User: Fold this.
Amino acid sequence: MATPRNLIVFLRILVAAEYTGTTRSIAIIPLMQGRQLTPLDKLLAGANNALRTVAAPAGLSARENPAVDIPDVDLSKTQKSHAAGLMRVNHAGEVAAQGLYQGHATVARDPAIEDQMQRAADEEFDHLAWCEQRLGELGAAPSHLSPVWYAGAFAIGAISGVLGDKWSLGFIAETERQVCAHLDSHLAALPEEDLKSRAIVKTMRDEEQEHGENAKDAGAAELPGPVQHLMRVTAKVMTKTAYWL
Ligand SMILES: [Fe+2]
Ligand SMILES: [Fe+2]
Assistant:
């Protein structure tokens, strides 16, 4: 029977060959940089990115996994399960980051800002690949709700982008600020012995901070307090759910 889970498995198989075993960075507009893009180009590129993010294995990252040289240690069953839950949450966050940056880039008005989002999205895709690799090592799988996280974040990105680049950048700056706080909490919560997960989360945290600072430097507007609150509530729902599902 065609359940949502079966559909995801099918899509994973369908597009896996495109990038399993190859070193590449995911492009918001793959293979089309250097020419003026039509709205249809952007739509198709966006659909391609969405499929690559939610329906296929992340494959190799463009940059080396920060945990590659760290030896794995034996974790207890409880530690392993907790680390897997936390890394699944982080993976879901990276799926949402792809949606957010993709949504912004689709409607960005300033080419320099679109470029900046492309660079950030490339780094976010490395984060996605590193989290997925670690989940595999822990014997766990990504969230089954990845399409939901992606679609929700894409909608937020596109809507804020339509309001103008300064609001779009404002969303990025606030999101990255909240993500940094969230990753700090994970560094405190991950088992001390799980040095591999910790190395990945630490690198991600440093880069999220840089993304946030870049957005501020590019002219991010400060979001109203109620919007910031709504973002925190939404993120909480996502993190609580993705730990288990
Ligand atoms: Fe990230
Ligand atoms: Fe980021």
Summary: Residues 97, 120, 124, 176, 208, 211 surround fe (ii) ion (ligand 2) (CB under 6 Å).
